[in-house]
Amino acid sequence: MNDSYRHKGLRQKLIDSLSEKGIKNTELLEAMNRVPRHLFMDSSFVNFSYSDKAFPIAAGQTISQPYTVAFQTELLEIQRHQKILEIGTGSGYQTAVLLELGTRVYTIERQKDLYNIAMENLRPLGYKASFHYGDGYEGLPTFSPFDRILVTAGATEIPKKLLDQLAIGGRMVIPVGDRFGQKMILIIRESKDDYKESIHGNFAFVPLLPGKSN
User: Fold this and answer.
1) Model confidence over 132-157: pLDDT tens digits?
2) Looking at residue 56, what is its pLDDT?
3) For residue 77, with 0-12 CB atoms within 10 Å meaning exposed, 13-18 middle and 19 or more buried, which class applies?
4) With contact defined as beta carbons under 8 Å apart, do 93 and 195 qualify?
5) Backbone angles phi and psi of 64, in degrees to 5
6) Which residues pair with 104 in a beta bridge?
7) Domain 55-203 annotated CATH 3.40.50.150
8) 96 — alpha (psi -120 to 50), left (phi > 0) or beta?
9) Is the four-CA dihedral 76, 177, 42, 85 of positive or negative sign?
């Protein structure tokens, strides 16, 4: 693994900037400081790996801005050993952060190229997730309920099937809106039929699309 002192120094500067921008969860910041983001990016963008920006990856998708990764993850209020459903594996960076927090991660990717890339990125680093090539709107009912659900693409509405797969007391974070931008929504399942929603700012994600893409 090529994770040099230079990479580690740049990563620490990034983590310091996230703290300055309001991310308060120290366990999360420490987890992100352990993940070599440059190994999840296209080689042409490696020199920008520790900029707080989103960058293109394969299949017309993006690796999220580190602040966005931190913001979504902090909203989830993750505890160790929880079962997490991630919708949109991408290159696997967010997956690695969730695993560094001591969780069990089930992750779905609809783009076959990215599904393969994420496994190639994560496994040599010792990260073990349950990978699934499929439709994020469907979730993974066989493995539900999930303590936390994280959606890393912009949905036009909150998928009912994902709500059904959230454990009582569980939290789901999902950006909802159109191609011009989304609002970050936190959903807490309070009982079998009761959900509490709150809005946490405006973001821009690639769209959450139905079905699988070869």
Assistant:
1) 999 999 999 999 999 999 999 999 99
2) 87
3) middle
4) no
5) -65, 155
6) 83
7) yes
8) alpha
9) positive
Residue 58: partners with Cβ closer than 8 Å, 6 or more residues away: 42, 91, 111, 113, 114, 117
Which H helix or E strand runs over 29? helix 26-34
Distance set, CA 160 to CA 21, 141, 210 (Å)? 33, 12, 13
Residue 114, both tokens? 């990215």
Q: Is residue 129 classed exposed, middle or buried when 0-12, 13-18 and 19+ CB atoms within 10 A define those classes?
A: buried
To the query of whether residue 17 is one of the catalytic residues in this protein, the response is: no
100, 73 contact by CB (below 8 A)? no
What phi and psi values does residue 190 have, to the nearest 5 degrees? -90, -25
More confident position, 105 or 1? 105
Alpha-carbon distance values, 139 to 13, 86, 109, 132, 163 (Å): 36, 9, 10, 10, 10
- Do 185 and 84 meet the contact criterion of CB atoms below 8 Å apart? no
Say how far apart CA 212 and CA 94 lie, in whole Å: 20
Q: Which of the residues 17, 51, 64, 91 is marked catalytic?
A: 64
Asked whether residue 44 carries a pLDDT value surpassing 90, the answer given is no
The span from the CA of 41 to the CA of 47, in Å, is 10
Looking at this protein, which amino acid is placed at residue 173?
A: V
Which residue shows structure tokens 């089930």? 106
In this structure, which amino acid lies at residue 59?
A
